[in-house]
Amino acid sequence: MSEVIFTSSATAKGGREGHVTSGNGIIDLNLVNPADNTSGSGTNPEELFAAGYAACFDGALNLVASKKRKSIDSETTAEVDFMKDEEDGGSKIGVQLNIQINGVSPEEARDLAEAAHKVCPYSKATRGNIEVKLNPKAVEIRG
Length: 143
What we know:
The protein is of the alpha+beta class. It has three helices and six strands. Helix 1 crosses helix 2.
């Protein structure tokens, strides 16, 4: 096993209609299943996964850009789809990463996104397991 840099933890109780907390107490959220409960207040595993993947990918993107001496401003939105799995009758997820990059051409945006996808830990963890679509776009981000 590789050298551990740090460990994070979270505990869920009650599944999709339960509660989740992080080990440090920052995350303390009710869970709702949007497929069954459209009026409930809370989050779901796919939304939490989207938040983590977006943050991780955007970090990888900025790392790759800095190594290529590109000064960028970026924003990554992860859309996580919860879908029926036709193979086993269960469920699965798919991800679209919508990546906005200021400071590069459209071709450079595509190249940076593809390079980030190779080194992002979430991309490595999901590679070959779920479909991930990259949608890079060179834009002027207004803050």
